[in-house]
């Protein structure tokens, strides 16, 4: 049997068309993919402008796509928790299940760790079907539609930011960045009842989407110094918690400066370039707690739970591309970047 799949074979090179399907392992679930989200990482792998490609951790050919949801189409004989027709999501990494660490149940230390569609590539979800071990597959709540289900993976990073600081009804939170993670973080902070949520960015229409999803105030960097603007919104004090999601060169320092003394800053973004003129003294003098946030086990299920209990990020889906048009979408993805927050590729879902 064959399925349509999209594989990046080198910088700016895509193979799109039917590929042979391998047999299903006993412990695997075969998933018919409904929608797959396009991540900045997918585009970076396509253009080759990606630190993990430069470091050799991501190699070509690479079947990209790690943000998806679908329906179980077939189960291996050892699968017990899923049946054909179940709606599912999966982890974005696959542990081998066979090494010493996996056999001890210590999956975090698996020696043959593979990431879906990226490092040590487990074939990704720009394909009609995904193969996934049952242990990495999760049921999807009935009240989450497949489009928003494709957002569960990127929003799991925003969940990570929420796990790093307890937002309460007294909290004043700033979020830098208007991508899916930034807007998702603002929405989650508001869902947790934060007193005031301020979203900071440079694109007015994206800031408006941030407000639609829950931010109380938007600060546009084109209107002047964002640190001054955030301080003005907080009586000169600064916020309790700032989440930096933009990956900009100036934003880590701005995050520290817009946070009140003894406040907390979370860094969720990756920085493709070294940051010049970072004033460590400003950090010390403000007694800021700075934390890095990476994905961790449990975030996917927590993100699913947020959507099941009312998180709605429909407004961030700015574009839906048919699978047959996906190669062309990637070719033009740089030019269309400014019009996009999150693009989804429609694979198995009906129009
Ligand atoms: Zn991603
Ligand atoms: Zn292992």
Question: What's the short story on this structure?
Answer:
The protein is of the alpha/beta class and 351 residues long. The chain contains twelve helices and 17 strands. The strands form four sheets. Strands 3, 4, 5, 8, 9, 16 and 17 form a seven-stranded mixed sheet that branches. A six-stranded parallel sheet has the order 12-11-10-13-14-15, with helices on both faces.
Strand content: 25-35%
Radius of gyration: 21 Å
| Largest sheet properties | 7 strands, mixed
What is the global morphology? globular
Whole-number average pLDDT? 95
Word description of this protein:
The chain is built from twelve helices and 17 strands. The chain has 351 residues and is α/β, with parallel strands linked by helices. The protein folds into two domains: 184 residues, Alpha-Beta Complex (Quinone Oxidoreductase, Chain A, domain 1), CATH 3.90.180; 138 residues, Rossmann fold. Strands 3, 4, 5, 8, 9, 16 and 17 form a seven-stranded mixed β-sheet that branches. It has a six-stranded parallel β-sheet with strand order 12-11-10-13-14-15, sandwiched between helices. The chain has a two-stranded antiparallel ribbon with strand order 1-2. Helix 5 packs across helix 6. The longest helix has 12 residues. The chain is globular. The protein starts with a strand and ends in a 5-residue tail after the last strand. The model has no long low-confidence stretch (mean pLDDT 95). The structure holds zinc ion (2 copies). One zinc ion binds next to helix 3.
């Amino acid at each position: 049997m064959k399925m349509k799949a999209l594989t990046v074979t080198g910088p700016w090179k895509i193979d799109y068309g039917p590929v042979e399907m391998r047999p299903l392992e006993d412990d695997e679930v075969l998933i018919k993919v409904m929608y797959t989200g396009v991540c900045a990482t997918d585009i970076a792998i396509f253009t080759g402008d990606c630190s993990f490609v430069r470091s050799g951790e991501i190699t070509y050919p690479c079947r990209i796509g790690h943000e998806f949801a679908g329906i179980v189409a077939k189960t291996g004989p050892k699968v017990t928790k899923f049946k054909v027709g179940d709606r599912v999501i999966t982890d974005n990494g696959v542990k081998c299940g066979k090494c010493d660490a996996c056999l001890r149940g210590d999956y975090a230390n698996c020696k043959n760790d593979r990431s879906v569609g990226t490092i040590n590539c487990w074939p990704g979800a720009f394909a009609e079907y995904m193969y996934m071990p049952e242990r990495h597959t999760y049921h999807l709540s009935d009240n989450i539609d497949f489009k928003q289900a494709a957002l569960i993976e990127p929003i799991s990073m925003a969940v990570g930011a929420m796990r790093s600081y307890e937002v309460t009804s007294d909290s004043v939170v700033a979020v830098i960045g208007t991508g899916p993670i930034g807007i998702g973080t603002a929405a989650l902070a508001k869902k947790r009842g934060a007193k005031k949520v301020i979203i900071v960015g440079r694109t007015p229409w994206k800031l408006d989407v941030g407000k639609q999803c829950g931010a109380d105030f938007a600060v546009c960097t084109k209107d002047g110094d964002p640190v001054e603007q955030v301080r003005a919104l907080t009586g000169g004090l600064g916020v309790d918690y700032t989440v930096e999601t933009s990956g900009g060169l100036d934003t880590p320092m701005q995050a520290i400066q817009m946070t009140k003394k003894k406040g907390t800053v979370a860094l969720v973004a990756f920085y493709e370039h070294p940051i010049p003129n970072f004033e460590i003294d400003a950090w010390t003098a403000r007694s800021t707690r700075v934390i890095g946030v990476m994905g961790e086990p449990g975030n996917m299920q927590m993100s699913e739970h947020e959507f099941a209990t009312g998180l709605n990020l429909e407004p961030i889906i700015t574009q839906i591309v048919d699978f047959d048009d996906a190669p062309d979408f990637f070719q033009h993805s740089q030019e269309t970047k400014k019009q996009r927050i999150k693009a989804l590729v429609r694979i198995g879902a009906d129009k």
